[in-house]
Request: fold
Amino acid sequence: MKARLLPFVLLAVASMAQAADTPGSSPNVATPTVAERLDSARKAIAGKDWGAAFRELNIAVREAPRNADVHNLLGYSYRTRARPDLPKAFEHYQTALRLDPQHKGAHEYIGEAYTADKRLPQAEQHRRSSNASAATAPARSTRISRSRSPTTRRRISASAGDCGRGPCSPSRPSRRGALRSATPCAG
Reply:
């Protein structure tokens, strides 16, 4: 007799557990925005928590299927996880570029994916596209805060390889970890 009741009791308990887990229709509970989901996904990606990143990004892509940033991050996640899925990465990068043909990040990352897939002509094409979109963006030195002193602005620009007075070689870390120019400025 007990054996016959056991399946019914388990079924009743399981249905109650599911009902407790089912979200209600409470208007007081705020759902995260797509921007908040992107921030959460970026944090998860930085921590290499691919499960959390994919959860957030898949919800974000359902909520905003025409958001190039979401598709770019999905492509990046597929490409850089422990077991890369390059076909899925290409699919999302191409969607991002179809939505925003000037998306610099998507051009850079699809170029890296083509390089990993040993398709160098396509990688070079996207590298050029990335550089072309960077040329239309404001120069790095104009984005440095004007509230900083001129000396600080020069130091920041020099660490990026452009002191504004002429060509500099790329910076490298010193023994103490500070950035310094590999060769003196020619300007």
User: Anything to note?
Assistant: The chain has two domains: 34-136, 140-177.
